[in-house]
Amino acid sequence: MSELRADRLTDTWVIVAEERAARPRDFKLRAEPKAQPEQAACPFCPGNEGSTPPETFALRDGPADAPGWRVRVVPNKFPALGGQGNPVELGYHLRAMSGVGVHEVIIETPAHGATMASRPQRAWEELALALQHRLRALSRDPRMRYVYAFKNQGPASGASLAHPHSQVLAMPVVPERVRREQQALEQHHRLTERCLLEDIVQEERDAKLRILEEDERFTALCPFASRFPYEMLLAPRAHLPRLEDASREDVAAFGRVLGRCLVRLEVVLQGSPLESYHLGLHTAPVGGKPETYHWHCEVAPSLGFYSGFEKGTGMFVNHLGPEKCAERLRQPR
Which helix (H) or strand (E) holds 196? Predict the structure, then answer.
């Protein structure tokens, strides 16, 4: 029987309906063949640094904008937001704002065809350090209210290049999902003087059904109200509003647990029609009083398309419950 589950962090509902996985399909889900461009043509490969704008940050040996880097950050040549000046409201009833912002690409590794499993532990730690550095740098821009780090992986995710990369987008507004989380965390703290996300993680630790990874610094799990099959949540055990303020040890630990979780996901998704997912870092908005926020990372696989119900209501229908997903993800790799 299906079940309605509440996502307490966003005050939204999800329908878990596993019986829908068996419904008949006249239209088969098919992914286009994966494009694997030649290394010589890839702007993110070593030796092609001149194909990108000058780097804004790198972990490297040797001079800037040359080979020898391990992680490299450059401005996006086709930014969603960009330009100089301050954001200006363009209307009232038909609300709009000038598209001021900063959009960067984090080239995660020099290896064009690197899989999650092929990357050494140091690579994951350095990726996390690069993410923290760019969040810190872009959050200092007084025009910006939120900085979002994210990754599109696979043919159904929206990624345009195969070379492993992430992105960072600084914007003059706070995204709706983050705003909802902030409100829920603030309300819970007013009522209980505790952190809602910490309470959720503790309940999950007690239940043990959906836990994927756990150490003294981080917990990774499949959320109780998962929107998608194999959705994952990674949260630090210690309360901290922003990844920008985390210690170097905590950031490196985040990189390690993220790498292990993505290896698990890569194994489970292998051979599926769409080996794709989205990853996003949720950190407290810039400015204000962020004390009640608790930064975390969300991973959401793309295993299908939104239906009319989901587009019309904003409620997701998940055909594979998080308990089964966690069991599969925990299996030895």
Answer: helix 196-207
